[in-house]
Amino acid sequence: MRHIRILLVLFFFATAVSAGEGIVPDDNKEAKDHVIRLEQNYPNPFNSTTTINFFLPEQTEIKLEIYDLIGNRIKLALDEVKNEGEHSVSVNAGDLASGIYFYRLKAGDLILTRRMILIK
Q: What are the two backbone dihedrals, phi and then psi, of residue 80, each rounded to the nearest 5 degrees?
């Protein structure tokens, strides 16, 4: 049963990461200004601390959460209303074990997910 749960969680995250929602090619500047974007964390892989950037086209209530591979929420990095524009969040994962994690940005009805790797 546990293997089924793990497969379902991996499918969910793989689908969310590869769906491409909110991702606009770099050469289309006008379209980028009207879409919520979640950037890849940097550095990646990282040791203890990483930075996650995102863009909001308007003031939005957002949540930025960190999940492990089996879908357990590990951390709530941010839960507040943010103004439009570019935002940057520093995430300290010093208390986590080495491995693959997912970070998920929920902004209104849109959810964007990306993968990050912690190496200690």
A: -165, 175
Buried b (16+ CB within 10 A) or exposed e, 25-40: eeeeeeebeeebbbbe
Cβ contact 37:23 at 8 Å? yes
CB distance 105 to 79 below 8 Å: no
Residue 63 burial class via C-beta count within 10 angstroms: exposed 0-12, middle 13-18, buried 19 and up: middle
Tens of pLDDT, residue by residue over 26-78, are: 555 555 567 899 999 999 999 999 999 999 999 999 999 999 999 999 999 99
Distance (Å, whole) CA 92 – CA 67 = 14
Identify the bridge partners of residue 82 per DSSP, sorted by sequence position: 60
